[in-house]
Amino acid sequence: MITHIVSDMGGVLVDIEWAERIGKLFGRSLPMDELHAFWVNARSPVEFESGRINFDQFATAFIQEFNLDVSPETVQHEFLEIVRRPNQHCNQVVSTLKQTYHLSLLSNTSLPHYEKLRDRFQFFEPFDHLFLSYEIGLMKPSNEIYEHVLSVLDVSPESVAFFDDSLLNVEAARKLGIHACQVRSPEEIMAIVEGFGTM
Hints:
Blueprint (H helix, E strand, L loop, with lengths): L3 E4 L6 E3 L1 H9 L5 H8 L3 H7 L5 H12 L5 H9 L2 E4 L3 H9 L3 E6 L3 H10 L8 E4 H4 L6 H11 L6 E5 L2 H9 L3 E4 L3 H9 L5
Parallel strand pairs: 1-4, 1-6, 4-5, 6-7
Antiparallel strand pairs: 2-3
Helix pairs in contact: 1-5, 3-4, 4-5, 6-11
């Protein structure tokens, strides 16, 4: 029986312009699946979203890693603009789910993106747990981050439903026995959860 729901943030509950903003820096478009794989294998994003370097260090390292002809300020601006706002149906879906399930957020994210959402919206308030990569020093799709979530929540994998827009992250969770689904909106989460037969 599913008792805990764990959701990704960007691209699922929060609207993002990830491909557009990174594509602007690179001067070419990047399909989302390619971008997901690229992001978790690039040194500077991993160090930044694991909390090992700050925003200024990230901007400089990102330019150097990819030999970009842009300023650090441009990198920071475009990076901040990746995160837009909570999806228009986010609050309704989260409120409904919270009536039945323990809710957690599991996100590869950075302090600037967290602060942007915290300061402009009440997005984080309904969640029982926040698992943010920059705080815990781990990133999806590593086994360690899912094991950390299960340990902190003190639950079996079979009792957790995990939702993410990255197939890489979904497949990694499934290997540990977590009920994981690829989704790109709160409505998709709701449709799947309604099929659990517990609401």
